[in-house]
Amino acid sequence: MLELEGLRKRYGDRVALDGVTFSVRPGELYGFVGTNGAGKTTTMRITLGVLEPDAGTVRYQGEPVDTATRRTFGYMPEERGLYPRMRVGDQLRYLAELHGLSRGDADRAARYWMERLAVIERVEDRVEALSLGNQQRVQLAAALVHHPAVLVLDEPFSGLDPVGVDSLAEVLRERAAAGVPVVFSSHQLELVERLCDSIGIIYRGRMVATGTVDELRASRSERVLRIGTDAAAGWADAVPGVVSAEYGPATTLVLAPDADDQTVLDAARALGPVREFTPLRASLTELFREAVADNGGDGAAVGAGDPEGVAA
Ligand SMILES: Nc1ncnc2c1ncn2[C@@H]1O[C@H](COP(=O)(O)OP(=O)(O)OP(=O)(O)O)[C@@H](O)[C@H]1O
């Protein structure tokens, strides 16, 4: 298990991390999401020892992580870290050997990942001559080439075409199924919702929610129901537990946390037939906006970015 506990980091008077704690179990695919500047990259850099925290610890299998352990981790940094003038194949073999693989194993692993990530035809090309998407694929191969025990990937899906997204998703699922804790950051919330076992939402350097999507849904303060009825607009306004109502071809109701949905159903049935009665599941995007809004942010403006960090 990979455990991050109480990570704190300041850059001058800007607090980037304010006590970040979460853990990723073996075999778990963990999506790390947050607004721009929330602290994802800082957290990942600390996990890989690229950056020292001011406080807090990173543990793997119960022990504080040292340099030797970190060599067994696979990391894809946000700033990308390839040698632009080196050829793709040489680069991957070199990185694998650097992580302790024999020449033969390094060669086999490099070929495997170049094939898997569809860059094998570029084996003799210099990295700088590749398109950004293909550089990204090589960067992913570099994170995977030494059979890492843990994977930490900073925005691995950004810049990939849909085919690349699908093959990377499959690789991550597969690595997780093999028992590797996998954590990756992303702004593509639909993808994260589809792919991940667990999700952590960071906002202004603090974890504001963590758990499975279902757990995040269950902790939501309000519930939403859609009811198909021909009753006149306004029918639900006085029903106990209804916080707000929108009337159209169907009625959409926001219920208070302790409301009894059967009371609402009875009220609707008393007015005529009920064609539909559907609790609406919140998407990760909605859960994300709500978590941000609950923590003093402007949930509606999340897509447009957010003030970076917090002055100390
Ligand atoms: N080297 C640095 N010097 C000063 N401030 C920094 C530095 N690196 C990061 N920060 C600040 O720390 C905060 C967290 O940044 P970080 O890059 O970790 O966020 P992020 O969640 O990865 O953002 P994004 O989604 O935009 O990549 C931001 O306020 C950022 O401006």
UniProtKB/TrEMBL annotation:
Highest rank taxon of the organism: Bacteria
InterPro entries according to UniProt: AAA+_ATPase (IPR003593), ABC_transporter-like_ATP-bd (IPR003439), ABC_transporter-like_CS (IPR017871), DrrA1/2-like_C (IPR025302), P-loop_NTPase (IPR027417)
Domain ABC transporter, chain residue ranges per copy: 2-229
Record protein name field: ATP-binding cassette domain-containing protein
Family of the protein in this entry: Belongs to the ABC transporter superfamily.
Keyword Transport appears in the UniProt entry: yes
PROSITE patterns: ABC_TRANSPORTER_1 (PS00211), ABC_TRANSPORTER_2 (PS50893)
Alphabetical UniProt keywords: ATP-binding, Nucleotide-binding, Transport
Organism: Catenulispora subtropica
Chain ranges passing through the membrane: none
GO molecular-function terms, A-Z: ATP binding
